[in-house]
From TrEMBL:
It comes from the Eukaryota. This is Uncharacterized protein. Residues 1-28 form the signal peptide. It comes from Hemiselmis andersenii. Keywords: Signal.
Length: 291
């Protein structure tokens, strides 16, 4: 009897191993943010609502046998802020509770990323992202490092590509910032637009977003020198400006710039009359003399 019982357990153990589940093991199939983080209203303070994370089994029940660690980080971090406090929390009955997380400096549109391991026989990585949240006390901002001079697509001579950086209050660049910067036209004298092949949103690399593919469809030039009220403008009386924005930042506006029109000579100038040289008056019988 005892031998048969032992053989039965051996068969059960082997069968379970073949399908990847051992007796007593739990299958942590997924992870969810059960309490979303809510930002602080005073700079440097802890988040008003600290997040909690739950590891779930395939059937949606908490994985109560999982006592591993959950790690928190900033998965979306437009202002290059740091996440301080205890960024690791242990699972208890499948739930990890964070207690003192601080995002500094602040900003908007952060997302927190949580990672853990399942309690499988062969543990699998689990990951979850929080909803967007803010943290008060933003010190980072956008700054235009290189102001634009955009041209027509058909004539790119003289173009200057704009560059926008994420900086702190002192103007120091923040190379870890991951903001995606977008551009729009703010001052638009001739109802121009960006060409279809222009790239209007650029993710920051090293804290900088460089717009190397921007072209406009219409020209706009400054008045030529000498224009008066009586003569009127001798060219377009307006110029373009661009606005750069990113989630969590106030927009910044560029300096004014003009866009030179294309000049094509469709008909070359020519004379419609014959111009003869004036007579030469001289003395003597030399050839060509008059009188």
């Amino acid at each position: 009897m005892g031998r048969r019982m032992g053989e039965w357990w051996a068969v059960l153990f082997l069968s379970a191993a073949l399908v990847g589940v051992l007796p007593g093991a739990a299958d942590g199939a997924s992870m969810v943010v059960s309490t979303q983080p809510v930002g602080n209203t005073i700079k440097g303070r802890m988040l008003e609502t600290q997040p909690t994370v739950t590891v779930l089994l395939d059937d949606g029940r908490p994985d109560v046998s999982n006592s591993g660690m959950v790690m928190a980080s900033l998965g979306v971090n437009p202002t290059a802020a740091s996440l301080n406090g205890h960024t690791q929390a242990q699972l208890y009955n499948g739930v990890a509770t964070f207690t003192d997380l601080v995002v500094y400096p602040g900003g908007q549109d952060f997302q927190m990323k949580f990672t853990a391991m399942s309690s499988d026989v062969v543990p699998e990585p689990l990951e979850a992202m929080s909803a967007n949240f803010f943290a008060a006390g933003q010190e980072a901002k956008l700054m235009i490092v290189t102001h634009p001079r955009i041209t027509l697509d058909a004539d790119r001579r003289g173009a200057v590509a704009p560059v926008v950086a994420v900086v702190d209050d002192l103007g120091n660049e923040l190379p870890m910032a991951t903001a995606t910067v977008s551009v729009s036209i703010t001052r638009n004298p001739n109802s121009g637009s960006f060409t279809p092949n222009s790239v209007l949103s650029v993710p920051a690399e090293g804290g900088r977003a460089a717009f190397g593919s921007l072209w406009l469809t219409r020209a706009a030039t400054m008045n030529e020198p000498g224009a008066t009220i009586d003569t009127g403008p001798r060219g377009y009386d307006e110029t373009y400006t661009l606005s750069f924005s990113a989630p969590g930042f106030a927009a910044v506006e560029s300096e004014q710039f003009d866009v030179s029109p294309l000049v094509v000579v469709s008909r070359q100038p020519s004379s419609d009359r014959v111009v003869s040289a004036p007579p030469v008056w001289c003395q003597g019988g030399l050839e060509g003399c008059m009188g």
